Every structure is written in structure tokens, then in C-alpha cells.
């Protein structure tokens, strides 16, 4: 496998003809460190866990999806706007492309859930969800409806802090992700994205009651998270899947 591409705060290439456009707003990034061998078996074909200083990470990312749109059409205000909470891992493929792997994607609109599952083979799940800002705190709640495990839940409250002028290498590693790896129809593929540089803020985890990580097949965290961040959000463009993900070597 070639060396992974550099971690860059800006997208390596602009997507001129997007497949999808959307905004990601009011994001909380909560991350735990894990040994790569713990999650290696959960990676799509042709990828291995991406690492920073020998460790990889499990992310619980809660946010508001806003005005999802196809191609260059205006985003849809109701069906295209909804809370979402993802459990994600970090991946790299044989071409050196760094990305994320979604283990679960809870969302509160049934139609986008069905479209994501059928059209993109993404692990979307229908859940009751809220995002409630109050002063300098934001609370994200999620309770799964379908397809299951029914009742899987999360309730996260973060307190936002000062703007980060220069993120640390780990903070760049966890947030500057310019694509995702997934098993699309026809095999493993890489779906690129681009967006402006993240506006990131320090954050403190006020409370976290969740079993989404364990429901996604990952050992439940027992330690405090190693990173908690907040972002007011960015506009995003997603490109078409590139199906050239070749076999990657196994993790030792």
C-alpha cells in the first residue's frame, strides 16, 4: 500500500459537477481512540484503518443536515433538512486516499433514509431526533425506530468554547476528511466531497448517554473521549463514486 495522502485542511480537488449538495450545521464531533486491530474487520474491502500516531478513532458526530439537493438544483427545505447522528471510523485505501467509513447514520426523515439505503447502500436508520441549542450548549437526542436495533439511542450535550485558530494535527486528522469509503453497487468505492475549511471551536462534553457505538458493532467506549469539537457548519458538495478501490493488505 502506498503512503496515505497528506492530511490537508482544504479539499485537495474542487468538485465542479456535484452529485449532491447540502449543508452540515451545528456539528458536535466526539472521538475515542482505539487500536486499529479492534476495527480492522469492519472496514470495506480494499481499505484499512487510518491511523494517527499508531491509533485510529471512533467518531460520534451529531449535526443538522440542511437542504439536501441533487446536482445544482436548490436544496429541498423540508425533506432535505433533518437531524443526523453518525458513528464513523477512519479509513485509507490502496491509492492512499483517506476517508471515513460510516457504521450507522441515524436520521429523522424516512424518505432520505430509504433513498440512502437503496440508492447508495449507506447504513441509514430512521430515528426520532432533536437538536436543541440553549445558550452556549447544544443537546442532540436520537432514538432509533427502524430497522434496528430498535431503541438504540444517544443523548449528547456539548458546551461550545473559543474558536480554534490553528487546529492540532489530530483535530485536522479527525475533521479534514475529503471522502468516504463504502460498498456501493458494483463493489467498494470512494465518494469524494469538498467544502470550505472547517470553522472549529473547542467544546466540553457535558453529558453523553449513548449505545449507538456498541449497536454499530464497535466495543462501547469506557474512557473519556480524547477530542470534543464543535462547528457551526459548512456547505458541502459530494461527487460521484469512484469505483477503483483495490485490495488492501490486512492489518497486522
Blueprint (SSEs and pairs):
Layout lengths: L19 E15 L1 H4 L7 E3 L6 E15 L11 E12 L4 E10 L2 H11 L3 E11 L2 E10 L6 E11 L5 H7 L3 E6 L2 E8 L6 E10 L1 H4 L11 E12 L14
Parallel strand pairs: 5-6
Antiparallel strand pairs: 1-3, 1-12, 2-4, 3-4, 4-5, 6-7, 7-8, 8-11, 9-10, 10-12, 11-12
Give a summary of the structure in a few sentences.
With 252 residues, this protein is mainly beta.
**Secondary-structure content class:** mainly beta
- Biggest β-sheet: strands ordered side by side in the sheet: 1-3-4-5-6-7-8-11-12
Q: Count the DSSP helices.
A: 4
What is the count of β-strands? 12
What is the CATH architecture annotation?
Beta Barrel
How far is it from the N-terminal to the C-terminal residue, by CA? 13 Å
Largest sheet: 9 strands, mixed, barrel
Shape: globular
Assigned CATH superfamily: Acetoacetate decarboxylase-like
CATH fold category name: Acetoacetate decarboxylase-like
Radius of gyration, CA atoms, in whole angstroms: 17 Å
Pfam families: DUF2071
Protein name: DUF2071 domain-containing protein
Amino acid at each position: 500500500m502506498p503512503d496515505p495522502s497528506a492530511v490537508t485542511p482544504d479539499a485537495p480537488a474542487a468538485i465542479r459537477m456535484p452529485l449532491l449538495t447540502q449543508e452540515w450545521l451545528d456539528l458536535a464531533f466526539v472521538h475515542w481512540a482505539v487500536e486499529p486491530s479492534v476495527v480492522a474487520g469492519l472496514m470495506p474491502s480494499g481499505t484499512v484503518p487510518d491511523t494517527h500516531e499508531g491509533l485510529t478513532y471512533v467518531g460520534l458526530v451529531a449535526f443538522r443536515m440542511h437542504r439536501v439537493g441533487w446536482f445544482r438544483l436548490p436544496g429541498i427545505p423540508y425533506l432535505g433538512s433533518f437531524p443526523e447522528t453518525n458513528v464513523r471510523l477512519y479509513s485509507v485505501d490502496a491509492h492512499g486516499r483517506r476517508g471515513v467509513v460510516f457504521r450507522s447514520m441515524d436520521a429523522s426523515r424516512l424518505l432520505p433514509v430509504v433513498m440512502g439505503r437503496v440508492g447508495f447502500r449507506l447504513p441509514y436508520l430512521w430515528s426520532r431526533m432533536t437538536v436543541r441549542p440553549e445558550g452556549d450548549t447544544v443537546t442532540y437526542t436520537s432514538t432509533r425506530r427502524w430497522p434496528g436495533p430498535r431503541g438504540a439511542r444517544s443523548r449528547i450535550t456539548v458546551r461550545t468554547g473559543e474558536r480554534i485558530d490553528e487546529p492540532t494535527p489530530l483535530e485536522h486528522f479527525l475533521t479534514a476528511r475529503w471522502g468516504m469509503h463504502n460498498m456501493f453497487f458494483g463493489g467498494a468505492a470512494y465518494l469524494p466531497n469538498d467544502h470550505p475549511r472547517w470553522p472549529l471551536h473547542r467544546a466540553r462534553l457535558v453529558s453523553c448517554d449513548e449505545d449507538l457505538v456498541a449497536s454499530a458493532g464497535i466495543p462501547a467506549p469506557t474512557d473519556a473521549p480524547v477530542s470534543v469539537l464543535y462547528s457551526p457548519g459548512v456547505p458541502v458538495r459530494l461527487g460521484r463514486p469512484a469505483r477503483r478501490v483495490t485490495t488492501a493488505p490486512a492489518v497486522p
